[in-house]
Amino acid sequence: LSRKDEKLKKMSEDALIERMKVLLGESGRGVAVGIGDDAAVISQPRCELDTLITTDLLVEGTHFRLDWASPYQIGWKSLAASVSDIAAMGGRPTAAVISIGVRPRYGDYFVESLYEGIRACAERYGVTIAGGDTVLSEKAAVINVALTGTVARGRAVLRKGARPGDVLLVTSTCGDSAAGLHILGATDGNRKNMTPVMRDLAARHLKPEPSVEAGLAAAASGAVTAMMDLSDGLARDLPRLAKRSVVGAVVRATDIPVSPELAAFCERMNPIEYDEKKELFELPYYPFELAMSGGEDYNLLMAADPDKADGLISLIGSLGIPITRIGEIVPQSDGLTLITPDGEPHSWPETGFSHF
Amino acid sequence: LSRKDEKLKKMSEDALIERMKVLLGESGRGVAVGIGDDAAVISQPRCELDTLITTDLLVEGTHFRLDWASPYQIGWKSLAASVSDIAAMGGRPTAAVISIGVRPRYGDYFVESLYEGIRACAERYGVTIAGGDTVLSEKAAVINVALTGTVARGRAVLRKGARPGDVLLVTSTCGDSAAGLHILGATDGNRKNMTPVMRDLAARHLKPEPSVEAGLAAAASGAVTAMMDLSDGLARDLPRLAKRSVVGAVVRATDIPVSPELAAFCERMNPIEYDEKKELFELPYYPFELAMSGGEDYNLLMAADPDKADGLISLIGSLGIPITRIGEIVPQSDGLTLITPDGEPHSWPETGFSHF
Question: What is the pTM of this model?
Answer without folding.
Answer: 0.84
